[in-house]
Amino acid sequence: MVAIALSLFSLAYQLGPAGRTHGTRAPACTMGEYRLNNYILPGPVKPLGNQVLIKLRKIEEKTGGGLFVPTAETEKPKEGMVIAAGPGSVNPETGETIVNPVSEGDLVLLSDFTGEKVEYNGEKHIFVNADSLLGKFDKQKVTLEAFEPIGDRVLVAVAEAATETTTGIALALAENEDSCMGEVAAVGKGKYYNGALRPVGIAKGESVMYDKYAGAEAKFDGKKFKIVSEKECIAKW
């Protein structure tokens, strides 16, 4: 009798809910069911630490007030909606939690060169560290005014490249060549060092020069911008 009971228990465990075998791939996602890379989960996924789960969405040629155009030298940005976010990172000095800069429902902009791509509930998602995000849009409005850089990043309105020297000699410029300088249109809150928030040492309205291959390119209302980190900036005035 005991042997029969154990056999039945073993069979029930292997089959699991609705007769499915534990650890096997699910054929389809039903209402109220959660899947990660086609494996059934007991509930919704919960990112840890500073991790964020983002549902990717295709960036249209025009998105509201902004147009994001990748170039060969810069990062290719992507838009996405935050589906779930971890509580944040841990301050190594105090052990306190540094709150995640984004939360569920935020519309964010991220680099193409980061994250762990997954399939969640049958759709493309990506896990990324929140510190690697380029920025977010306030109230999901894709406009210049609503864009908020994350961490120590700044949004720079790219200045037009000079076409001649001070003596009037024409300069030969490559098509779409970046001047690598411009006026700062928005600034992130800063970055944590040794457990303390260090504000960005660049202010909105100042002008900066940045590394030629730095950051991600964006356009708002036809004007060219660059999203770069503070450490990628060379000088300011």
TrEMBL record:
It holds the Pfam family Cpn10. Gene3D superfamilies: GroES chaperonin. It comes from the Eukaryota. Residues 1-18 form the signal peptide. Keywords: Chaperone, Signal. One of its GO terms (molecular function) is ATP binding. Belongs to the GroES chaperonin family. This is 20 kDa chaperonin, chloroplastic.
